[in-house]
Predict the 3D structure of the following.
Amino acid sequence: MPLDLNSQVARMADMMAAPVDQDLVILNLATNTYVGLDGIGRRIWELLETPQSVEALCRHLGQEFEGSPDEIAADVMSFLRELEAEGLLQET
């Protein structure tokens, strides 16, 4: 099912992750690949520890970062699709 603002999402459990300065590096053992996240990506990853709607995630990020709600939603959706393609995101 394609992601939208009503989708309930969470990060995949049991992923190995390590902070590197402000960034985060995740090892996906299923694909044996590394994924690097910048500071904002790291924050999204932290928030995805608890399942929530994409809309709630966007609202939360809008309180922490500057940008219009439409810009934040577009950026978050794009990022979540990348996580999904890497096998790091699940719909709950």
Summary: The mean pLDDT is 95. Residues 8-91 form a domain with the Arc Repressor Mutant, subunit A fold (CATH 1.10.10.1150).
